[in-house]
Fold this protein.
Amino acid sequence: MAGTGHPAEAPRFEPNWDSLKQYDVPDWFRDAKFGIFLHWGVQSVAANDGWYARHMYVQEGAPWGRAYEHHLKHFGHPSVVGYKDLIPLWKAEKWDPDSLVRLYREIGARYIVPVAVHHDNFDNYASTWQPWNSVNMGPHKDVVGEWKRAAERQGLRFGVSSHCDRTWDWFLPSHASDVRGPLKGVPYDGNLARADGAGTWWEGYDPEDLYCRPHQENEPPDPAYLEKWYRRTRELIDKYQPDLLYFDGPLPLGEYGLRIAAHFYNANMEWHGGRLEAVINVKW
């Protein structure tokens, strides 16, 4: 059911399901029909596999693609050249967000949703809580901010996609090693520490902030990971004020996801003079 758009009817949301059930779909999203999802980031450097950051560490048994072999051929062994080392290769030197978003509008899109952070845990924006981000390294640009400004110039609604709630399990192979061959047992670069960066391009950065700390399979995320996810996601909402927030799965991480949903809806109403224009998309 589409909302009426009257501010007086917009509820105040609390971080629980009973409160969130008051949500009513805004008219703009019901009517938009067509948006563009922009799956672009460090993983695009390899031009091989959308899950490249994980599969490059999977010597055997990856469900699709041949990312491990591709990485060996084009970049090196993941114990020496890891996913982090693709970051300086993502320069975005030919990126022209204005011309792209103009094209999207011309073909009928009414909103865009760039990936603010994929499962690779690299923030494509000016992040306070994740030092591995596109302003500090790589293109040295606020990618999400530039997409947003281009959308505003073309009169399109703006959304963001956040996948880093899944990084804890998704990046676990980066802490493993080859299961066969001459480098069997040699740890991949996910096992490096901050001190190992001395004299390298990533000196001063902690690989654990990117790959998460080593842990056992099926070990639940620790409180530090959960709190960091919440702070990063809240900053993404507050700094870029999207009207759409996409999660690549269910609403993430229990009570933390509920807190994000309630904050997003309430903050969005403040940006729009009491009207609720916010949309949360989940995969299931």
Confidence is low (pLDDT under 50) at residues 1-7. The two ends are 20 Å apart (CA to CA). The domain at 34-248 is CATH 3.20.20.80 (TIM Barrel).
